[in-house]
């Protein structure tokens, strides 16, 4: 460290000798000297309110709010500050231990302060933004002497699609403590990039839907539809030509209200469109109390408006296909296993999986047993850059405790009495360059969890009996049906491993919350088993479907598949498969588990009676089911229809039939 101080003194005194420091640091020092930065004291620029609005009022920062608790937790665990800045170096988020927050105020590392090289000299924030890559700056490597007692590490956050510099994430601590490895900052920045992409794609799907519904209100005035980043989602070619811009250039709104709650329904403000500043009427578009985009109405004087062209014509052809989320009304079906569904929650999970496939961050699949976690893991693998490499699935609960280490990491030859001379490769080495899926990760013995954590952090394994570590390049996807956070609080699961695995969590909804996906999946499984058995029985779908929707499916998709297969296999001789055939199978399932019950059933005796095909006439059952749904919904037809899994018009038609 003394050598660096000497090099810094020589450089700042201008003795003409080239400093022996890292190249990134040298280039930053040279820029600082060119800017005329004070070598004694950094001076972050505190922006006036109007300029702060222009630089900081980017609604994309609200995307990060769900991540703030995790970032704060990491700041506390690593005992450091975590800050997020804009591409200009303007601070938008700071958090950490209380003593560091006091120090942040002392250093003026506060929201709205500009920490670019022009004002604060060589810091990780300024250097990372200038070099557009991760940078660490330690002690006297800082250009300003006032920062010589800290270390800081920054990593870049890119914009979705364009991959341009968008923000920087920085971790800052006392020089008295060991600096955080740069890989930690890179991991956090990758996490934010993924979250940004996920939320942005979902927002755009909502904006398109909103626009299609509302577009009839804008028949005469020329207008733009933009997302919260300012990306143009819709406008006419005439507007682009008039303002000499392209869909890739962002639209900047000046002086917009800062608070969502104070946001007027429509306000007038200047916008920067291409190289032109023009006054326009702006309507914020909100979803869940967050501004996700704007509809901008341009002045009537725009030449394209008087041309008679109907500007309500839709043209999304220039938007990247990556940015368009599948409609929740469209079936999503891929070639991996049985990923079939159109419900909002399920489509959201698929979109998250697509984003996860674009990086190598650990993924944690959460959900009840039978929701399809391994199918999703394979989907992520096949959509990733590792798709041509090995996918290896391991059930952590199925490996005997004594064999976990040798199974995962292998052993050297001759380690055990009677073991092979060649030894054996562990699962991590077998999956090298590919993906390893650790199912039921919550069952992994506590003493093994530390070893797995080291693999995730160091990317190397120690086979039993090995003298040296072996580097591995494996993407880890874990899955559990347990609450790992709760287990970690009870000391049954390592907190540090939970934080490392929980970087990209994806929740898979239970089948009972997926609405008409039950019908889609059941039909798919029926076709699958019918093709295998070369038997296509006629099915009374009008009778079968209400029964499907009235069952709670505690075993989720796995149970649904099993029931579909059993229904066909047990009724090969029937001329028509009816609801009573399905009820018979569900009756057996109800006896196997206490959790499965119809919405109107209060106890097991009623369940057996309701599911007994000898006592049940289906038409009467159907009427009782509808009456029960109406009672539960308090007479609300929409809610009752949702409970039954049918359209409201179907419910009205059945009620009319029963009353006639």
From TrEMBL:
Instruction: Return the InterPro entries for the record.
Output: AAA+_ATPase (IPR003593), AAA_lid_NorR (IPR058031), GAF-like_dom_sf (IPR029016), Homeodomain-like_sf (IPR009057), HTH_Fis (IPR002197), P-loop_NTPase (IPR027417), Sigma_54_int (IPR002078), Sigma_54_int_dom_ATP-bd_1 (IPR025662)
Checking Pfam families in the record gives: AAA_lid_14 (PF25601), HTH_8 (PF02954), Sigma54_activat (PF00158)
Q: Where is the Sigma-54 factor interaction domain?
A: 339-569
**Mind telling me which CDD domains this protein's record contains?**
AAA
> Which GO BP terms apply?
regulation of DNA-templated transcription
Keyword 4Fe-4S part of the UniProt annotation:
no
Could you list this entry's UniProt keywords, alphabetically sorted: ATP-binding, Nucleotide-binding, Transcription, Transcription regulation
**What PROSITE patterns has UniProt attached to this entry?**
SIGMA54_INTERACT_1 (PS00675), SIGMA54_INTERACT_3 (PS00688), SIGMA54_INTERACT_4 (PS50045)
Q: Name one GO molecular function term.
A: sequence-specific DNA binding
Q: Which PANTHER family match?
A: C4-DICARBOXYLATE TRANSPORT TRANSCRIPTIONAL REGULATORY PROTEIN DCTD (PTHR32071:SF57), TRANSCRIPTIONAL REGULATORY PROTEIN (PTHR32071)
What is the recorded name of this protein? Sigma-54-dependent Fis family transcriptional regulator
């Amino acid at each position: 460290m003394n050598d660096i101080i000497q090099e810094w003194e020589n450089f700042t005194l201008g003795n003409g000798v080239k400093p022996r420091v890292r190249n990134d640091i040298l280039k930053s020092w040279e820029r600082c000297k060119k800017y005329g930065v004070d070598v004694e004291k950094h001076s972050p620029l505190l922006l006036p309110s109007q300029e702060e609005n222009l630089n900081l009022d980017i609604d994309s920062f609200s995307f990060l709010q769900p991540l703030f608790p995790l970032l704060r937790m990491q700041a506390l665990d690593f005992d450091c500050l975590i800050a997020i800045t804009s591409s200009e170096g303007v601070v938008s988020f700071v958090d950490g231990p209380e003593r560091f927050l006091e120090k942040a105020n002392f250093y003026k590392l506060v929201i709205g302060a500009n920490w670019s090289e022009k004002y604060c000299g060589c810091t990780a924030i300024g250097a990372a933004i200038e070099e557009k890559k991760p940078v660490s700056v330690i002690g006297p490597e800082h250009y300003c002497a006032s920062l010589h007692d800290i270390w800081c590490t920054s990593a870049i956050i890119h914009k979705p699609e364009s991959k341009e510099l968008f923000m920087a994430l920085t971790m800052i601590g006392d020089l008295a403590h060991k600096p955080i490895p740069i890989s930690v900052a890179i991991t956090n920045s990758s996490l934010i990039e993924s979250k940004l992409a996920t939320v942005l794609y979902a927002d755009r799907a909502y904006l398109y839907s909103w626009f299609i519904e509302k577009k009839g209100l804008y028949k005469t005035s020329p207008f733009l539809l933009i997302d919260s980043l300012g990306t143009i989602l819709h406008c006419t070619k005439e507007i682009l030509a008039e303002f000499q811009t392209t869909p890739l250039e962002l639209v900047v709104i000046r002086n917009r209200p800062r608070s969502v709650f104070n946001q007027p329904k429509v306000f007038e403000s200047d916008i920067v469109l291409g190289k032109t500043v023009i006054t326009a009427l702006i309507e914020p578009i909100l979803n869940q109390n967050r501004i996700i985009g704007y509809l901008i109405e341009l002045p009537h004087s725009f030449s394209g408006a008087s041309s008679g062209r109907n500007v309500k014509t839709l043209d999304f052809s220039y938007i990247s296909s990556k940015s368009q989320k599948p409609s929740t009304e469209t079936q999503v079906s891929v070639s991996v296993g049985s990923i079939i569904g159109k419900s909002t929650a399920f489509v959201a999970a698929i979109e998250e999986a697509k984003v996860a496939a674009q990086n190598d961050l650990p993924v944690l699949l959460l959900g009840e047993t039978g929701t399809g976690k391994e199918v999703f893991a394979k989907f992520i693998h096949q959509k990733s850059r590792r798709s041509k490499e090995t996918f290896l699935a391991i059930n952590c609960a199925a490996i005997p405790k004594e064999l976990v280490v040798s199974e995962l990491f292998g052993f050297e030859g001759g380690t055990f009495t009677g073991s092979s001379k060649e030894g054996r490769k562990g699962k991590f080495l077998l999956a090298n360059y590919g993906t390893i899926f650790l199912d039921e990760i919550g069952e992994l013995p506590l003493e093994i969890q530390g070893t797995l954590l080291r693999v995730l952090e160091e990317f190397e394994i120690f086979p039993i009996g090995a003298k040296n570590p072996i580097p591995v390049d494996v993407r880890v996807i874990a899955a559990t049906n347990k609450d790992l956070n709760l287990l970690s609080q009870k000391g049954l699961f390592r907190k540090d491993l939970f934080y490392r695995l929980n970087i990209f969590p994806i929740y898979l909804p239970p089948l009972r919350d997926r609405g008409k996906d039950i019908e889609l999946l059941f039909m798919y499984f029926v076709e699958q088993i019918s093709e295998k058995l070369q038997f296509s029985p006629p099915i009374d779908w009008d009778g079968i479907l209400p029964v499907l929707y009235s069952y709670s499916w505690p075993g989720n998709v796995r149970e649904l598949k099993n029931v579909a297969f059993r229904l066909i296999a047990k009724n090969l001789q029937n001329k028509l498969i009816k609801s009573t055939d399905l009820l018979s199978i569900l009756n057996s399932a109800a006896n196997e588990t206490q959790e499965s019950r119809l919405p109107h059933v209060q106890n097991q005796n009623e369940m057996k009676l309701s599911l007994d095909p000898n006592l049940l006439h289906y038409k009467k059952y159907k009427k009782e089911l509808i009456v029960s749904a109406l009672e539960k919904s308090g007479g609300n037809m929409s809610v009752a229809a949702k409970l039954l899994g049918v359209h409201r018009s179907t419910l009205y038609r059945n009620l009319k039939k029963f009353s006639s």
